[in-house]
Amino acid sequence: MDDEPNILEYLRNIFQQPLYKTTVAPNGIVAQELAAQEGFDLAFVDFYFADVSGVVGMNGIEISRKLHELQPNLKIVLMSGFLNEERTAMVQEAGACAFLMKPFFIEAAQTLADRLLNNKK
Predict the structure, then answer these.
(1) What is the reported pTM?
(2) Phi, psi values for residue 85, rounded to 5°
(3) Could you say which of 25, 76, 112, 117 would form a disulfide bridge with 96 (CB–CB 3.0 to 4.6 Å)?
(4) CA-to-CA distance for 48 and 3, rounded, in angstroms?
(5) What is the DSSP string of 25-89?
(6) Beta partners for residue 78, in sequence order
(7) What angle, 0 to 180 degrees and rounded to 10, lies between the N-to-C axes of helices 60-70 and 28-37?
(8) Domain with residues 5-116, CATH architecture
(9) How far is residue 91's CA from residue 31's CA, in Å, rounded to a whole number?
(10) Coil, strand, or helix at residue 12?
């Protein structure tokens, strides 16, 4: 989930292989609806985005929490171009299992997804 169409397309291209079923969401409302209808094994969520859905305060942290309410075993990767101690604590508090620094290489996202989906450390 990301508010930047080019990032959504990038993620879709990375994971649009026979190995993965890929769904993208431009905002928190769509992400929650898709999670409730389809269920996910793994979600890449932008840490901060301009959610045009009109839901105040619905950033990546809030979306992560709501997705965990819908799917407690969902593995969430938060993404951002900036990370500090405060954000690190927020990532952990939101229940995300990993952080991916933007910009990232295709291989980094694929390796992380494979590790999380296969429960490898």
Answers:
(1) 0.84
(2) -60, -40
(3) 76
(4) 9
(5) -SSHHHHHHHHHHT--SEEEEESS---TTS-TT--HHHHHHHHHHH-TT-EEEEEES---HHHHH
(6) 45, 99
(7) 20
(8) 3-Layer(aba) Sandwich (3.40)
(9) 18
(10) helix
Tokens of 102: 């933007």
Q: Is the peptide bond before 103 cis (omega within 30 degrees of 0)?
A: yes
Question: What own/partner pairs with CB < 8 Å and gap ≥ 24 does 33-41 have?
Answer: 35/67, 35/70, 35/71, 35/74, 36/70, 39/71, 40/67, 40/71, 40/74, 41/74, 41/75, 41/117
Closest CA to 33 of 71, 59, 78, 83: 71
The two tokens of residue 88 are: 């690190």
Residue 69 token pair: 């309410």
Cα gap 116→56, rounded to integer Å: 31
Tens digits of per-residue pLDDT, 40-66?
Answer: 999 999 887 665 555 545 688 888 999
